[in-house]
Every structure is written in C-alpha cells, then in structure tokens.
Design brief:
By secondary structure, the protein is α+β, with helices and mostly antiparallel strands. It folds into two domains: about 60 residues, no CATH class; about 140 residues, no CATH class. Strands 6-7-9-8 form a four-stranded mixed β-sheet. Helix 4 crosses helix 5, helix 4 crosses helix 7 and helix 7 packs across helix 8. The longest helix has about 35 residues. Bound molecules: zinc ion. Zinc ion binds next to helix 4 and helix 7.
C-alpha cells in the first residue's frame, strides 16, 4: 500500500507560529524550540510544549520565548493609551498654538489663511476664534468672529467669513449692547424657530428668507455679498429696521 505524503500546512492541520509548527490536537510543537526555558519549571525542558502547556495564561508570540499575557497586555495598553491620549494631544495642541502665534497677523485679509488656523487668527483687524460645532455654523459677537472648523473645506468659506465680518462691522458701528438686541437675539430666535418641528416656522419660507432678514441682509451689505435668494423688498425692510432714511 502506497502512503501519500502531503506537506502543506492546511492538509495536516498545523499552525505555523513564526518559528515553529504547533499541533492543536496534541498541544505540541512538531519541531523543537530553539531555546531551553531557563525557568525552574520542569516543562521548560520539554522543547515540544507550548508555554508550559498553558496557552490561556501565556503566549509565545515569537515562538522563541514565553511572555505572561496579562502583564504584557496591560503594559502595552497603558503605554499606548498614554502615548495616544495624553502625550500626542498635548504635543499637537502645543504645536498648533505655536503655529497660530507664528502665523498671527492682525491685518490679514486672506480668508484661506484664517481657515488654516487651529485656535485663533485675525481677519481685517477682527479676532477670529476657531470653534467646532455641528449645530451652529459660524457667528460674530463681542467684537469676535467665531469661525467653525466644519466650514474649513466648504467652497463658500470666503463668503461665510466675509458675512461674519459684515456682522462684526455692524457691532463696531452700534456697540455690543445694541448689537445683541438687534442682531444676535433676533438671529438666535429665527434660527430656533426654523428648528421647531411640524410648524409654519419650519417651512421653506423661513429658510429661503434667512438672508433677507434685516440683521442678516445688513451683514451681506457690509461685506458686499449679493445672494440669489436676496429679495427686492429686503433693502426696504433693512432701511426701516435700522432707521435709515
Ligand atoms: Zn449672519
């Protein structure tokens, strides 16, 4: 009777563990370990055993020596955590702040340069604080433009920044108190109303006419932005609202 020999690992059900073949059926390596375990354990001298026959507690990643899984895992996880969650963020934050300081130019007029900043920058003399918010886009209050990182890659980013700069100009003109009452508050109310579910306020009319409201139209006017959604009546309402004769 002829005996057919097959040497491929799939056919003979052996695991190749980097240096040696391990047979799960008999819990033995089929070739000898290169090093004799120096521990006192008797099994350390059995060159065909895998981690003292206790593969749950021990592992032999290299196939060259045993490591206590529990300690190894915790040390490497703790090291990874500190490196990724503590050291790297601190490093990145420090680098980004230094980057912002170096690039800070109070009279900057380049919109893209403003969007490239991490935490703060300036645009035409206005302080720009970088924010990241899914709900709010960008806004301007207290003589500061709050520019959302979510707009960094939008094609209309220059328009967004200039619109906020238009609000900033108005606040410079009328002062923060009047600005809060005539721009910030109506804007917050209008935005809130468009989010009221199942009501007239959540209609397309509210969204379509956002930039026709006198406080928004004013920001567009101050920054020279002309939008297709601007209605012929917006200028008249604007002048009435601001007491312009
Ligand atoms: Zn606005």
């Amino acid at each position: 009777m002829a005996l057919k020999t097959r040497l491929d690992t799939e056919a003979i059900n052996l695991y190749y563990l980097n240096a040696r073949y391990y047979d799960p059926q008999v819990k033995r390596f089929i070739n000898a370990d290169n090093n004799i375990n120096t521990n006192i354990s008797l099994l350390g001298f059995n060159l065909f055993a895998y981690c003292d026959n206790n593969p749950i507690s021990y592992s032999d990643y290299s196939g060259e020596g045993k490591v206590w899984n529990w300690i190894k895992d915790r040390i490497s996880k703790a090291k990874k955590f500190v490196e990724e969650k503590v050291i790297q963020p601190i490093k990145n934050t420090a680098i980004n702040i230094i980057d912002d300081v170096i690039n800070y130019d109070r009279n900057n007029t380049d919109e893209q340069k403003t969007y490239n900043s991490h935490y703060f920058s300036a645009y035409k003399g206005a302080l720009v604080i970088r924010i990241k918010s899914d709900f709010l886009t960008s806004w301007s209050v207290c003589n500061t433009i709050f520019l959302n990182h979510n707009n960094d890659n939008r094609s209309d980013r220059a328009e967004i920044l200039n619109h906020e700069y238009g609000h900033y100009i108005k606040e410079q003109e009328i002062g923060t108190a009047e600005y809060l009452g005539k721009v910030a508050l109506p804007s917050v109310i209008y935005n809130g109303l468009t989010r009221v579910e199942s009501s007239w306020f959540n209609s397309t009319w509210m969204y379509d006419n956002y930039y026709n409201m006198p406080w928004e139209y004013n920001a567009d006017l101050n920054s020279g932005i002309v939008r297709p959604e601007h209605k012929p009546w917006a200028k008249g309402i604007h002048d009435l609202y601001w007491g312009i004769k």
